[in-house]
Design brief:
The chain has two domains: 4-129, Alpha-Beta Plaits; 130-163. The protein has helices spanning 4-23, 37-49, 59-68, 91-102, 120-127, 132-162; strands at residues 26-31, 52-56, 82-86, 107-113, 116-118. The chain is 58% helix and 16% strand.
Length: 163
Protein backbone atom coordinates (compact mmCIF):
# COMPACT_ATOMS: atom_id res chain seq x y z
CA UNK A 1 0.00 0.00 0.00
CA UNK A 2 1.16 3.52 -0.76
CA UNK A 3 2.50 5.66 2.01
CA UNK A 4 0.43 8.41 3.59
CA UNK A 5 2.66 11.06 1.98
CA UNK A 6 2.08 9.69 -1.53
CA UNK A 7 -1.66 9.39 -0.92
CA UNK A 8 -1.76 13.00 0.35
CA UNK A 9 0.04 14.20 -2.80
CA UNK A 10 -2.38 12.27 -4.99
CA UNK A 11 -5.34 13.74 -3.11
CA UNK A 12 -3.84 17.21 -3.55
CA UNK A 13 -3.65 16.62 -7.31
CA UNK A 14 -7.22 15.31 -7.39
CA UNK A 15 -8.39 18.43 -5.53
CA UNK A 16 -6.48 20.60 -8.03
CA UNK A 17 -8.23 18.88 -10.94
CA UNK A 18 -11.61 19.28 -9.23
CA UNK A 19 -11.03 23.01 -8.66
CA UNK A 20 -10.01 23.49 -12.32
CA UNK A 21 -13.13 21.69 -13.54
CA UNK A 22 -15.44 23.42 -11.03
CA UNK A 23 -14.27 26.92 -11.98
CA UNK A 24 -14.30 26.29 -15.74
CA UNK A 25 -17.16 26.85 -18.15
CA UNK A 26 -15.61 24.34 -20.52
CA UNK A 27 -13.26 21.40 -20.08
CA UNK A 28 -11.74 19.46 -22.97
CA UNK A 29 -9.69 16.28 -22.92
CA UNK A 30 -7.30 15.89 -25.84
CA UNK A 31 -4.56 13.54 -27.00
CA UNK A 32 -1.18 15.21 -27.37
CA UNK A 33 0.85 12.15 -28.48
CA UNK A 34 3.39 12.93 -31.18
CA UNK A 35 3.68 16.64 -30.44
CA UNK A 36 7.16 18.06 -30.09
CA UNK A 37 8.28 20.24 -27.22
CA UNK A 38 8.12 23.31 -29.45
CA UNK A 39 4.57 22.47 -30.50
CA UNK A 40 3.42 22.09 -26.89
CA UNK A 41 4.92 25.48 -26.05
CA UNK A 42 3.16 26.97 -29.06
CA UNK A 43 -0.11 25.37 -27.95
CA UNK A 44 0.29 26.66 -24.39
CA UNK A 45 0.92 30.18 -25.75
CA UNK A 46 -2.15 30.00 -28.01
CA UNK A 47 -4.33 28.79 -25.12
CA UNK A 48 -3.03 31.54 -22.81
CA UNK A 49 -3.90 34.16 -25.44
CA UNK A 50 -7.47 32.87 -25.54
CA UNK A 51 -7.76 32.91 -21.73
CA UNK A 52 -7.43 29.14 -21.44
CA UNK A 53 -4.89 26.75 -20.00
CA UNK A 54 -4.05 23.06 -20.06
CA UNK A 55 -2.37 20.58 -17.81
CA UNK A 56 -1.36 16.96 -18.08
CA UNK A 57 -2.44 14.64 -15.28
CA UNK A 58 -2.49 10.89 -14.86
CA UNK A 59 -5.68 9.37 -16.21
CA UNK A 60 -6.36 7.55 -12.93
CA UNK A 61 -6.23 10.82 -10.98
CA UNK A 62 -8.48 12.57 -13.50
CA UNK A 63 -10.91 9.63 -13.33
CA UNK A 64 -11.09 9.94 -9.54
CA UNK A 65 -11.64 13.70 -9.72
CA UNK A 66 -14.36 13.30 -12.36
CA UNK A 67 -16.02 10.56 -10.29
CA UNK A 68 -16.05 12.87 -7.25
CA UNK A 69 -17.75 15.53 -9.40
CA UNK A 70 -20.22 13.01 -10.92
CA UNK A 71 -18.85 13.62 -14.42
CA UNK A 72 -18.41 10.75 -16.85
CA UNK A 73 -15.50 11.45 -19.19
CA UNK A 74 -14.18 7.90 -19.12
CA UNK A 75 -14.35 7.73 -22.93
CA UNK A 76 -11.58 10.33 -23.10
CA UNK A 77 -9.33 8.74 -20.52
CA UNK A 78 -7.72 6.19 -22.82
CA UNK A 79 -4.14 6.83 -23.79
CA UNK A 80 -2.28 10.00 -22.87
CA UNK A 81 -4.71 12.81 -22.13
CA UNK A 82 -4.33 16.48 -21.35
CA UNK A 83 -6.98 18.67 -19.76
CA UNK A 84 -7.75 22.09 -21.27
CA UNK A 85 -10.07 24.41 -19.38
CA UNK A 86 -11.36 27.97 -19.48
CA UNK A 87 -14.01 30.28 -18.09
CA UNK A 88 -15.06 30.90 -21.71
CA UNK A 89 -17.25 28.17 -23.18
CA UNK A 90 -15.82 28.12 -26.70
CA UNK A 91 -12.27 29.56 -26.46
CA UNK A 92 -10.34 26.37 -25.63
CA UNK A 93 -12.31 24.34 -28.16
CA UNK A 94 -11.65 26.82 -30.97
CA UNK A 95 -7.98 27.15 -30.05
CA UNK A 96 -7.43 23.39 -29.86
CA UNK A 97 -9.37 22.80 -33.08
CA UNK A 98 -7.39 25.47 -34.97
CA UNK A 99 -4.14 24.06 -33.59
CA UNK A 100 -5.18 20.52 -34.61
CA UNK A 101 -5.64 21.67 -38.22
CA UNK A 102 -1.94 22.62 -38.36
CA UNK A 103 -0.72 19.77 -36.12
CA UNK A 104 -2.62 16.55 -36.85
CA UNK A 105 -1.04 14.79 -33.87
CA UNK A 106 -3.40 16.72 -31.55
CA UNK A 107 -6.80 15.00 -31.30
CA UNK A 108 -9.81 16.30 -29.39
CA UNK A 109 -11.50 13.54 -27.39
CA UNK A 110 -14.40 14.67 -25.19
CA UNK A 111 -15.40 17.60 -23.05
CA UNK A 112 -17.88 19.35 -20.84
CA UNK A 113 -19.35 22.66 -22.04
CA UNK A 114 -21.65 24.48 -19.60
CA UNK A 115 -22.22 21.23 -17.74
CA UNK A 116 -23.22 19.27 -20.84
CA UNK A 117 -21.22 16.33 -22.18
CA UNK A 118 -19.67 16.92 -25.62
CA UNK A 119 -18.21 14.13 -27.71
CA UNK A 120 -15.72 14.65 -30.53
CA UNK A 121 -18.43 15.50 -33.09
CA UNK A 122 -20.04 18.03 -30.76
CA UNK A 123 -16.65 19.63 -30.08
CA UNK A 124 -16.10 20.01 -33.83
CA UNK A 125 -19.51 21.65 -34.08
CA UNK A 126 -18.65 24.06 -31.25
CA UNK A 127 -15.38 24.93 -33.00
CA UNK A 128 -17.33 26.39 -35.94
CA UNK A 129 -19.18 28.89 -33.75
CA UNK A 130 -17.76 32.41 -34.08
CA UNK A 131 -16.10 33.94 -31.04
CA UNK A 132 -18.06 36.09 -28.60
CA UNK A 133 -16.60 39.25 -30.14
CA UNK A 134 -17.51 37.99 -33.60
CA UNK A 135 -21.09 37.29 -32.52
CA UNK A 136 -21.39 40.75 -30.93
CA UNK A 137 -20.07 42.34 -34.13
CA UNK A 138 -22.67 40.42 -36.16
CA UNK A 139 -25.40 41.57 -33.79
CA UNK A 140 -24.26 45.19 -33.96
CA UNK A 141 -24.08 45.02 -37.76
CA UNK A 142 -27.63 43.66 -37.91
CA UNK A 143 -28.90 46.37 -35.58
CA UNK A 144 -27.17 49.11 -37.59
CA UNK A 145 -28.78 47.73 -40.74
CA UNK A 146 -32.23 47.99 -39.15
CA UNK A 147 -31.64 51.57 -38.01
CA UNK A 148 -30.32 52.48 -41.47
CA UNK A 149 -33.40 50.98 -43.15
CA UNK A 150 -35.69 52.81 -40.70
CA UNK A 151 -33.97 56.14 -41.37
CA UNK A 152 -34.30 55.65 -45.14
CA UNK A 153 -37.99 54.84 -44.75
CA UNK A 154 -38.60 57.88 -42.55
CA UNK A 155 -36.73 60.12 -45.00
CA UNK A 156 -38.78 58.82 -47.94
CA UNK A 157 -41.98 59.26 -45.93
CA UNK A 158 -41.08 62.85 -45.01
CA UNK A 159 -40.28 63.65 -48.66
CA UNK A 160 -43.64 62.18 -49.69
CA UNK A 161 -45.48 64.34 -47.11
CA UNK A 162 -43.68 67.52 -48.33
CA UNK A 163 -44.97 67.00 -51.86
Amino acid sequence: MASAKILAEKQKTIDEIKSCVDSAASVVLFDYRGMTDGETKELRRALKQSGSDYKVYKNTLMARAFADLNIDLSAGLTGPSALAYSSDQIAPIKTLSDFAKKHPSLVLKVGIVDGAYADEAKLKEYATIPSRDGLLTMLAGGMIGLVKDLSICLDLYSQQKEN
